[in-house]
Design a protein that fits this description.
It is a single chain. The protein is an alpha/beta fold. The chain is globular.
């Protein structure tokens, strides 16, 4: 396992486990977690050097924190780092939510704490509710080690948030599709300007870059590695990226991702050019790129299953 020095000589594994897509006993975004299989995945990660585990208050209907806490409870507390998030839409009472998270995880402090999924629409909610000063105080008390936020907004909004000058890290959606077709590169460069470590989420764009159409697969070098590996390598080799998160739902994904993170494989200019061509091809086929995170569903006044609707629309547009 490759490691990056974060701050204070903290060594973080290049690969982190994102606990938004743990193994389930039934399909569906909030299906029941298959706890024995989740434990198997986490045990394998711990045995192979993964030390960063990311969860959130709303993942798996609130069960992700509970299962992750139980799974890690048998290991020494100084052998892993937990990242968790405050979600203002789920419960604006940040004190109550933070206390509940500590209880769910069965721990006394959270290593990496984030404001969750900030967008241009929700940034004001987080700034106005008083949570930032509260979490800064929790950091001074040792209940939080490092404070940051996860981000899904515009570069301009990101610059405004950084004016608070209290962030130890920022988590952004970064993959080669969003790098060439979206604003991921701009966000990354803004964080580099401010010398802020980057945590990467959605490195395979919710699975889209792991399941490429045949015409895209033909562009990849015939090396015997999967499309997901190429996507992970793109994110892992960017300077300033501390951890690349992966939502590992089974042992096949887990072993493959850990093997990818074991060695440094810089991409050549030719390989980067091919990934850019693939992103261009995907952009023509996909009207609305969606990672299936479902954060938009909480804001929908009609209660629509937006990811399913977008998937159907993309399929229709591709066939038309």
């Amino acid at each position: 396992m490759r490691y990056e020095i974060f701050k204070d000589n903290v060594k973080l594994s290049k690969l982190g486990l994102g606990a938004m897509r743990l193994p389930q006993t039934e399909p569906g975004f909030a299906g029941p977690i298959d706890e024995p299989k989740a434990q198997e995945v986490i045990d394998y990660c711990m045995a192979h050097g993964v030390n960063y585990y990311d969860t959130a208050y709303i993942y798996h209907g609130g069960k992700s924190e509970v299962v992750l806490g139980r799974a890690l409870s048998k290991y020494p507390r100084d052998g892993f780092y937990i990242a968790d998030k405050f979600n203002v839409q789920a419960n604006p009472d940040y004190e109550a939510q933070f206390s509940e998270q500590l209880n769910r995880l069965q721990i006394e402090y959270i290593d990496f704490y984030l404001l969750h999924g900030i967008t241009d629409l929700t940034a004001r909610d987080y700034e106005a509710c008083g949570c930032i000063s509260y979490f800064q105080e929790q950091k001074r008390m040792g209940k939080i080690k490092y404070l940051g936020f996860s981000f899904h907004g515009t570069p301009n909004c990101l610059r405004e948030l950084l004016k608070h000058n209290c962030w130890d890290f920022v988590q952004i959606q970064l993959n080669y599709f969003d790098w060439y077709q979206g604003t991921a590169k701009q966000q990354y460069e803004i964080l580099k300007e401010h010398d802020i470590p980057v945590i990467v989420m959605e490195p395979v764009h919710g699975g889209m870059l792991a399941n490429l159409p045949e015409e895209c697969l033909q562009l990849l070098p015939e090396t015997g590695v999967s499309p997901a590996t190429w996507a992970l390598r793109f994110a892992m080799n960017l300077p300033g990226v501390a951890v690349v998160l992966s939502g590992m739902s089974d042992m096949r994904q887990t072993t493959e991702n850990i093997n990818t993170a074991a060695f440094e494989y810089p991409l050549t200019d030719e390989e980067l050019s091919k990934l850019e061509k693939i992103s261009n091809m995907l952009r023509k086929k996909i009207a609305v790129p969606c990672t299936g995170c479902r954060y938009c569903c909480d804001n929908c006044p009609q209660g629509l299953d937006i990811p399913s609707l977008l998937s159907a629309y993309n399929d229709y547009r591709d066939e038309a």
